[in-house]
Amino acid sequence: MKKDKFDEIMSAIKMTDNLPSLPEVIYKINSLMEDDTISVNYIGNLMTKDMSLSAKILKIVNSPFYGFPQRIYNLNLALVLLGSNTLKSIIITSSVFELMKDTMKGLWEHSLFCGLTAKYIAKQINRNKQFIDEDLVFSAGLLHDIGKLIIAIKFRDDFDSIIKLAEEKKQVYSEAEKEILDISHADVGYYLTKSWNYPASIYTPIRFHHDFMMLYKNENITKNYNVKSIADNKNKTYSSNSYIIETAIVNLSDILTKSLGIGFSGSIYVDEIKNEIMEILSIDLDFLKKIIEEIYYFKDELNVFN
Amino acid sequence: MKRIKIEEVSEGDVLAKSIVLDNGVVLLSKGSILTGSIINQIKKQHIYYVYIKTNSGLTYEGADVSYLNGRTMENDLSDIEERFILVSNIKLMEDIKNIIKKVIIQEYQG
Question: Looking at CA atoms only, how far is residue A266 from chain B in angstroms?
Fold first, then answer.
């Protein structure tokens, strides 16, 4: 039943240069992603070559998520106000938008909502201490299912079979996927974003967004490693090579997005939020209640990129 | 209940949620009726969104269910039950389901 598709999918990943809606300018900007010294002016110059991208940026800057008091019409001012990390996350967003919209109904809404939720949760956890990069968490949330795109484009029949199986057997997508393919969309997303030279803070949450416990065990996380103990330890700045906090946030956001029934990502069924996620983020049910009451209204804003 | 931009608020709208500033101070309590000068005060605090009550627009005359975008509250609530069937024996997930139900009921009932 299970087909050996690993090699075929890996070669498909290497060929994504040919995917239709990733314009050249986005590739150039992506390759600069890890370079923190790159100037906003330089990115601005690249962007003016893509008018639709410039228009999108202005629309996003003027959306409620960034909430500047005045309307901003000037692209360079927008770039300065947003800063380079936010800018990068917007570029990533617009680069996958068309592709997602065309490939699978509902995936865009699911992905954007998950990204926004992840960013919102990171912000609530950060409070005054900026130890989680909110924009990178947004990008990881936005792109967590990008592997499904590759599978849907290259192996439409298998993709359709997974969705059908999940519906018939009432399974979460990743369970049905295991019965059809020998590689998961999480792994595909990981290989893809890694090949795009995205940072580990993005590709790690993508890789483990259904396998949080695997990362947790691999990294030998101890009971007292959590957001609260990191925040209390004022002399040390947060640095993590495991990106376990970012992964926990993306996993939680994915489940909350499905819980609210926003968009569609292959199966309607909600998966469990592990206790370890609550522990590592130092959050409780009351925190989740406040998050849900706020993010519920994000659904009215999902047309920002249209 | 509906979340709308402050520019789109009309005089006479009723707040469905209190406006709380970052420092914890309650600027306006829920149930307040918005006047022109109150709306200007809100804008000065750099608040972009408020939640207002939407009673009038929601209820279908003669029907005993509320409609929103062609859906009913009953549809939305039964969809939630279906989505959560795999995690029905986990307390945290049951609690989350009930929180979401409350949010949805609140949106329909204004």
Answer: 13
